[in-house]
Amino acid sequence: MVRTPAAVVTAGEREVRVSSPDRVVYRASERTPQITKLEVCEYVAAIGATMMRTIGERPTAMERWPDGWREGMRLAVGPKDSGADGFYQKRLPRGAPDYVETVDITFPSGRTAAELCPTEPASLVWAAHMGTLTFHPWPVRRPDLDHPDELRLDLDPQPGTDFADAQRVAGVARELLEELGLRGYPKTSGHRGIHVYVRIEPRWSFEELRHAAIGFGRELERRDEGVTTKWWKEERGERIFVDFNQNNRDRTIAGAWSLRARPGAPVSTPMTWEQLAAVTDPRDYNLTTVLDHLADGDPWADMDEQAYSLDPLLRLWEALPGGELNFPPDYPKMPGEPPRVQPSKKVAEHWDDDGNRIES
To answer: Helices in the chain by DSSP H: which ranges?
Structure first.
C-alpha cells in the first residue's frame, strides 16, 4: 500500500505538517461532500485567528478521532474505555512541536496535568492533524486558572424536544440577561442545543459560577414551563435542561467554531441573536459553509470589550428556593449536596436524606 505524502498547511507564520492528508474524516452526507483530514486542517487554519479570540490562553482538552468519524463510532466514557473510537486528550501527548504550549491544570480529584494551551493558530492546526475535531476550552485563562472569566449557559434539549425549543428558550434567556444588565453571546452547539456565553470579571470561584448558572436556570424555569434544572434525567421530562454543572472545574463544552463528530461536519457556530432566531436547521452551519457565515463579520468580535459582574445572578441563587443541586458523579461529595441517589431508586429502596440505604 502506497502512502500519500504528507501535506503542509500554513497557519499564521508557520507551516504545519499534515500526515495522511487524504484520510477520510467525514463521509459524504446530504449536505456535504466527503471531507478529508487535509480539509479539516485547512478549515482550522482558515478559522484559527478567529477561534483564538475565544480559545487563546485557555486550558483546552482535545476530542480526538484519529481514524476519522463515522456513524456508529463511539466516544470513550473514561480512561479505561479502550474499545472506543474517539477520546478526550487532557494531557498533551509527547512529540508535540515546541510552539505548542501547555498549562498545568488541577482536576477536582487533585491530580494535575499539562494541558494544551493554544497561543497561536498553528497549535490548533497541529491538534487537528492529531485527529482533534472538537476543542474543549476551560472558562479560564492563564495565569489565573481559579477564577473563570466567562459564564456558560448550556441549553440542552431533552428527548421530545428539539432545536426549535432551545431557540425559543434562548430568546427568553436573552430577555432575562438584558433585564439583569448582562450581554449574552449565543452559538449553536453543533447539534440540537444552544450555548450562551457571558464575559465576566475573573474574581469568582467555580462554585460561585455554578451557583450563578443555577440561579439563572431557576429564574428561566419560572418564566418558561419548558425549562428545567432537574439533575436526574428521569425528572426532566420534555423540556430544555439548563446544564449548570458545565460551569464546574474541568467541565467544558464544545468551543466556538469547533467541528463536531456528527454527520455533515457541523460546527458550533457563534451568531448574533438575530442570526440565531433565523436558523431553521443548525446542520446548515458546517465546515463547507461557516467561512461564508464569518465573511459577514465575527458575531463575537466585541466580547472582550466589557466584563460583567456575577452579582445579579448570585442574587437569584440566594433568593430563589431549591438550595444546592447535585454535582457530577466523579466529584467528591460537596457541602450541602443532595443525596446522589436517583429519585425512583430512593423511593423503591428506602434511602434517607443523607444518601444512606435504610434496611427494611
So the answer is: 37-55, 121-129, 163-179, 206-223, 233-236, 273-278, 290-294, 311-319, 343-349
CA-closest candidate to residue 192, choices 168, 214, 208, 213? 168
Spell 195-211 as b/e; 16+ CB within 10 A means b: bbbbbbebebebebbbb
> Per residue in 143-164, pLDDT tens?
899 999 999 999 999 999 999 9
Give tens-digit pLDDT for 105-147. Answer: 999 888 999 999 999 999 999 999 999 999 999 999 998 999 9
Contacts of 327 (CB under 8 A, 6+ apart): 245, 248, 334, 337
194-199: strand order across its sheet: 185-188, 194-199, 150-157, 240-242, 227-228
Rg, the chain, Cα only: 21
- Rounded to 10 deg, the angle between the 37-55 and 121-129 helix axes is 140
Closest CA to 286 of 265, 272, 271: 265
pLDDT value of residue 36: 98
CA 80 to centroid of chain Cα atoms: 23
What percent of the chain clears pLDDT 90, i.e. is strictly above it? Answer: 88
